[in-house]
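Sequence, structure tokens reproduced for absentees:
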Amino acid sequence: MSSAISKDRRLSTDRRQAGTGDRRRQAENRYAIFEVCRSMLHLAIVVRGAGAEGTPDRVVTRSIRWRKEATSLNTDQGIHEMTEAFRSLVSEERLNGAKIRVALGGEFCVTRVITGPTEDVRREFAELEERSLRYLTLGPGPKALAGNTQQLDARHQHALLAVANQRTLDHLMQISDAVGLQIESIEPSLIALSRAQAQLRDPCKDAAILIQLDEGAAELGICHAGRLLLDYRPGGHTNAENVAGLVAQHLSRLQRYIERYHSYIDSPLRHVYLAGDANAVAVASKKFGVLRNFQVHILQPADIEMPWQHAAEVPGTDLAATLGTAMALYSDSAEKQGPNLIENALAQLREPLRPILIRSFLPFAAVLAVAATLFVLRLQQWGGISTVQSQLDELAPICARATELRLQLGNAESKLTQLAALAKQLPQPGWQQIFNHVSQSMPDDVWLDRLTFHDGKSASLTGASYTDGGVYDFVGYLKQVPDISEIALEGTGVGQSTTGPTTNFTLQLTLANLADHSEKEVRHD
């Protein structure tokens, strides 16, 4: 980075005259153009009316590396480093308060081109705007779009749609405010480069392939007569080493695109223009030299025919796109200006037409706002009351049903209490006595598996014996038990135990005392 007190590079016509009170020419005669590349920041200053009438304008060019440690412009480190680079150039070239134009490299923006009938162009233009969020290579977040349409004839149009990450534009606006600059427009570098190619002393009349080479990256496009026809982004990483092979590989696809959308171009694609970083241009030119299908040209700023002269040495190929943006200063046609990515932001910054009327209207607007707020709150309160009332109405049947169930539950609990009191007054069977009598009636070869009492009136008994006679003896003994009134043998079966075969049986017993007690209570009732 050069120092702010470096050698004065201005010509004598720009310096203050000693002893005269003349001041340096006003800022409106000096136009600054910046190009933001991956790591470099290029500057071109066009001084209009630098000498006597009829003399060409002067162009001062500078380049400075802005990226040092930052991984991206959209980081705190990137914003800091870019701000310092802008501040250095503004201080050294005395650009404070100047209006500038900016060209963005391919890393920061994408250009989409549409050519065809007017209705088709409008439809595709709208579809591209809807798909703008899919440009993930520009980073996450919302995207900013800007369009420019050129009328080719009565029924055909040529439209350019530039897309950039909104954060990138916001950061550039933030940086320009911090260093005292006013950005008038931001356009893609590839559009500026196609503009520069058309102003060469001996430009190619056919469609040509444009290649903008940056540090470790390459941006491809097709131009014709100063118009960008295609911003081509092949898959994978493209750089100076492989760009020649990649163009040769995709040449047939590019040729088909030209034949389909630009049928008025009947010559094949064979002209290639290289611009950008000087070292990368040299490498790419050497790679293209091996291929016989291409005529390679270096887009040198010295070959550009414009009504200006360079104040110092003629810049190299790295400032070709910067000078292409500067050429827009010499055209009043809106079609040749290219899409402006901050056009919407500038429209929002315009001053109101009636500031005094607005200030006078503010108190009345405040009263209306308070009244509207109170009315909205009242509406919300009414809405809340209506909601609660409707909920209560919906719960009314449920409340009635709950009251009915509560009464039924009370009646059931009252009956249960009465039944429990009656149950305590009923005589309790002598279960132990019955069990003792049954166990005493069992022969030695009989055993019981289960004895079950049913509602105090009957019982069931299951067991087994080694012999059929043991079962019948057991039945006979049970008939002599006074607690049992009736005995029924429901069934027998053959079983098996660890000591041999058995006879399984099931008996149904009617308890005498309980039955008599029940009959007595019935008669008493």
